[in-house]
Amino acid sequence: MDDMTRTEQALTGAIAHVDGPGAPPGLAEAIRYSVFPGGARIRPRLCLAVAQACAEDRPALSDAAAASIELLHCASLVHDDLPCFDDAEMRRGKPSVHLAYGERLAVLAGDALIVLAFETLVRDGVGAPERLPALVRIVGQSVGMPSGIAAGQAWECEPCVALTDYQRAKTGALFAAATMAGAASAGYEPGPWRGLGEQIGEAYQVADDIRDVAATADEIGKPVGRDAALGRPSAAHELGIDGAVARLKQLLGNAIETVPNCPGRDDLRATILKEAQQFLPAKILRRAA
Q: Residue 235: which of 221, 216, 249, 222 has the closest Cα?
């Protein structure tokens, strides 16, 4: 079974637990709408790729970790699009949750997805209780304070912020959680895997900054030009397109060198390089060649 299929099955199973009898139908619909159909599922697939590279022996636990990380990511998108933050009208090529279901249900859907992430991790991880504490800590730190995605969102409310600090919390935190959780679910020490996730996360954010100024809304499935409109830190604005592309290539090179020793190290490196080709539109890749 490939990583995308595993991810979708794990997410479908998780969502089934909140879509049962007695659930408020509007909120249940908003939650499902927030998760399906998804994007590239980069974070959960990275988690599973690391678990496989570490010769995973508890695939159900790896699946739960991957699903929890994607549920947190989906929650962050719902909240990020709200009128009090980005006021974005489109996400993944369709109306944002607050436009489709109203602002109140959007807030609740994001909150419920955060809770569901931890429920999923604990419920499906009972078969490996000795590994659960590390996984819960990894996932919790990725979403909270002082350097999780909540902190990343809060940096947007400050008068100034260093680009690296902003990107490490806003985007890098969940990528670091993905690599660390993949290792921990396979019984490996998660600490050495943080650097890999941070490098990939920063690379992804740099690519997102480039897309915001060089792609179209149809290409990326969400509004463009938002960083400039909202006064956000941006690698594309600070470094220029060519400088940002060079920084992206440097980060990806660093990530390849950062992969810790594990049975599937070479395969994981190849996977990272392959996935990196999806970061930017083809016209930008041609420009960077």
A: 249
